[in-house]
Specification:
about 375 residues; DNA polymerase, domain 1; TIM Barrel; 2 domains; ten-stranded mixed sheet; 11 helices; 12 strands; about 30% helix; about 20% strand; elongated; tRNA processing; transferase
C-alpha cells in the first residue's frame, strides 16, 4: 500500500508524555512491570480508565497506595485541562475547549439526540484528531487557522473518555446516560494523523479492559479524501463508517473548495471510497456543505446524483455554518429542497444534517479553539 505523502506528515512536536491510552495491551503490561508492579495491574488500570472512566490513580483503591504516585506520573499525566464549556439546544449540546499540556487549544462537542419512532436515543461526541487543520478548505474556520500539531493517541481517546464521563455523571440535559457514538469530525484531518487515529480507534472499539467497547458501526471517520490513507484504513479491518467531505461533484470547483483535490480528483476519491465499501460491506457517507450560489446549482445536484446512483453511498447535506470573515452563505431552503429532490429522483439516499451548536460556534466547520 502506498504511503502517505510528506505533505500530510503533520508536525510531531509538542506531543505529551506517555499515557495509558497510548499503549496497547502488551504495552501496558510492559509499562507496569517497568514500574515494578505485577503485569496483572495493567488490566486493573485499564478497567479503571475505560470501564469506570477514572483517570486519577488516587481513586483506584485496589492499587497499592505506595504505587499510586508513580502510576500517576508515568501512565496518567494530565492530557486535557478544561478551559470552558458552552451549552445550547436546552443543554443537550455542549462544546468543550481544552488546553493541552503545551498550551495548545482544541475543541470537542457533545450532543444528545432524543429517541424517535425510528431510532433509540443517541449521545454523540465529535472529537478532534489534530490541533487545527492543514487542509485549508476556505469555508471552514478550522482549516483557515492552519495546522498546529497532531494530537497523540491519548489526547484523542481522552476526549472520548471525558465525554463518556460527563454523560455518565448527568452533566448534560436529560440525566445520566451512556455515550453511544463517536464522530471524527472535529478539528483536523483524521487520516493525516493516521497511526495515532488507528490506535485510538482500537481503544474505542476494543472490549474491556482493552478499550471502551463501542460498536464499530457507531464510529465515523471523516476525510477530505486522502486516497492512499483510505486504502490503508480499509485493510485495518476496523469497519468503522467512512465519511467523505466532497462538497462538489466536479473537479473544477472542488479544486477550490477542497484544495487536496488538486492531488486526488473526484473520481479517485470516490474510487477509494468504493473500495472501502467493498472491503467492509459498509455504506459510506458523502458530506456536502450547501453554499449559496457556489455548489448548489441544479446541474450540480444532477451530476452528483449521476455519480452516486450506482454506488453504496449516502449523501449528508450540511447547511453551511457561518464562520468569521466568510464570503459565503448557506443555500436558501427552497434551493436545498430542490437539491434533495434531484438526488432522490436518481435513487440516491439523502438527508439534511440536523445542525447542532451553531449558536456557540460548535457546528461543522466552526471549530477554531479560541481561548
Amino acid at each position: 500500500m502506498t504511503s502517505l505523502p510528506l505533505v500530510f506528515d503533520a508536525p510531531r512536536r509538542g506531543l505529551p508524555p506517555r499515557h495509558l491510552a497510548d499503549l496497547d495491551a502488551a504495552g501496558r503490561r510492559a509499562a507496569v512491570t517497568e514500574l515494578g508492579l505485577p503485569a496483572f495491574r495493567a488490566d486493573q488500570l485499564s478497567r479503571h480508565y475505560f470501564a469506570r472512566l477514572e483517570n486519577d490513580p488516587e481513586a483506584m483503591t485496589d492499587l497499592p497506595a505506595a504505587a499510586r504516585a508513580r502510576v500517576r506520573d508515568e501512565l496518567f499525566p494530565p492530557l486535557l485541562s478544561e478551559v470552558r464549556h458552552q451549552e445550547t439546544d436546552s443543554g443537550t449540546t455542549r462544546k468543550s475547549l481544552w488546553r493541552l499540556h503545551d498550551g495548545t487549544l482544541v475543541e470537542s462537542v457533545l450532543m444528545r439526540y432524543p429517541a424517535t419512532a425510528k431510532r433509540p436515543e443517541r449521545i454523540t461526541v465529535c472529537v478532534s484528531s489534530q490541533a487545527g487543520c492543514g487542509m485549508a478548505c476556505p469555508f471552514c474556520a478550522t482549516g483557515q487557522g492552519g495546522l498546529k500539531r497532531n494530537l497523540s493517541t491519548g489526547e484523542i481517546v481522552d476526549q472520548v473518555v471525558a465525554a463518556a464521563r460527563a454523560v455518565a455523571h448527568g452533566e448534560i440535559a436529560g440525566g445520566p446516560g451512556r455515550l453511544s457514538n463517536v464522530v471524527f469530525m472535529g478539528m483536523g484531518e483524521p487520516l493525516a494523523n493516521y497511526n495515532r487515529l488507528v490506535a485510538a480507534l482500537h481503544r474505542l472499539i476494543d472490549p474491556a479492559p482493552g478499550g471502551l467497547g463501542l460498536s464499530r458501526r457507531s464510529i465515523t471517520v471523516s476525510t477530505v479524501g486522502l486516497v492512499p490513507a483510505i486504502g490503508r484504513l480499509a485493510e485495518e479491518s476496523l469497519d468503522v463508517t467512512l465519511a467523505v467531505s466532497l462538497h462538489a461533484p466536479d473537479d473544477e470547483l472542488r479544486d477550490t473548495l477542497v484544495p487536496v483535490n488538486t492531488r486526488w480528483k473526484v473520481a479517485e476519491v470516490l474510487g477509494a471510497a468504493d473500495a472501502y465499501a467493498a472491503r467492509t460491506g459498509r455504506r459510506y457517507s458523502i458530506e456536502y456543505a450547501m453554499i449559496r450560489d457556489v455548489n448548489d446549482q441544479p446541474w450540480r445536484a444532477d451530476l452528483l446524483g449521476d455519480l452516486l446512483a450506482p454506488r453504496l453511498a449516502h449523501v449528508n447535506l450540511i447547511p453551511l455554518n457561518p464562520t468569521p470573515g466568510s464570503q459565503w452563505d448557506a443555500s436558501p431552503k427552497r434551493v436545498e429542497q430542490e437539491f434533495v429532490r434531484r438526488l432522490e429522483a436518481r435513487g440516491v439516499a439523502v438527508t439534511v444534517r440536523d445542525t447542532r451548536g451553531r449558536e456557540i460556534d460548535g457546528a461543522c466547520g466552526q471549530l477554531a479553539a479560541q481561548g
